[in-house]
Amino acid sequence: MEKDKERLRIIEKIKEYEREGKFDIDVEDDPPTIPLKPNEVDFLRKKLSSKIKARFANKQAINFFNKLIKEEKVIIKETKGIENLQNLKDTGFIITCNHFNPFDTFTVEKTFIENKTNKKPKLYKVIREGNYTNFPGFYGLLMRNCYTLPLSENKHVLAEFLNATKAILKNKDAILIFPEESMWWNYRKPKPLKSGAFHIATQNSVPILPIFITMKDSKNIADDGFPIQEYIVNIKKPIYPDKTLTKKENIEKMKKENFNSWKETYESFYKKKLTYTTKNKEMIK
Fold first, then answer.
1. Residues facing 203 on adjacent strands
2. What is residue 103's DSSP assignment?
3. Of the candidates 1, 26, 155, 204, which lies 20 to 30 Å from 222 by C-alpha distance?
C-alpha cells in the first residue's frame, strides 16, 4: 500500500523539529484558538446541563474507542506496572504521559478505568485551549465534554483552571497532563518536559504517576499505509513531593525524576540509548 503523502510530510517535519529543538511545537495543524472568557467553562461540571453532556459524551467516547479496539485500529498489547496505579489510594494524583497520537488519551483512560481500585475517582484531561473552543464535529463534542480542562492563556481563566485542579485533587480524583506540550505522530522518544504538571502536583501536595507508552509495528496496515502500532502501557512508580524542599526545588526534582523514568523505559524497551539530533543541548538537559 502506498504511504500517505501527508503522513510522510509529518515524519519529515518531526525530524526537522527535533534537529531544531522545537520539541514543544505540534507538527500537525491545530484548530485556530478562540480565546476563552472568564466563567465560560464549567470546569467541575456543576451545572445540570454540563453533567448531562459529560455523561452523554463519555458514553459516546467509550463506544467509539471500544469499536476501534474491536477493529484493531488501536491495539493495547500489554499493561505493565498496574500495581503502581492500584496502590495509589486515598489521594488525588496527576498522570503524565507521552503524547504521540490523538487516541493516546483514550488508551490512558481505558487503563485507568479498568485498573483503578474503586469506582469513585474520575479522570480529568488537560487539553489545549483551541481544541476546546474550536474543534469541529464529533471530536469537538468529546473535547468539550469528556471531563476536559482547557488550559487558557487568559490569566482569569487560568485562575479558574487552577482552582478547579485544586478541587479535583482534593476530591481524590486524577488529572491527565501531557507535559511535553506537543503531539508528534508515533514519535517514540520522550521529549523534554514542561513544568506545569509538577507545579500543580507540588502546589497540591499530590503524587505524579508517570506513564510511558512504548510501541511496535503490528501486522495490520492502516489506511495511511503505515503499520498500526501495538501499545505497551508502562505505569511507573509514583513520584511524591518532598516536604523538605522549596516549591521550585520540588518542581525541578519531580520533573527530572519523571523524565528519567521515561528515559529508562525507552532505553529498556527499544534496547538503545536515548539520543537526539538537536545541536541545542540546553533543550534536552
1. none
2. T
3. 26
Tally of CB atoms within 10 A around 99: 20
Assign domain 5-284 to a CATH class. alpha beta
CA–CA separation, 79 and 88 (whole Å): 17
pTM: 0.95
The DSSP code for 96 is E
Q: Give the start-to-end residue ranges of the domains of the chain.
A: 5-284
* Residue 175: count of CB within 10 angstroms of its CB: 25
The grid cell for 18 is 527535533
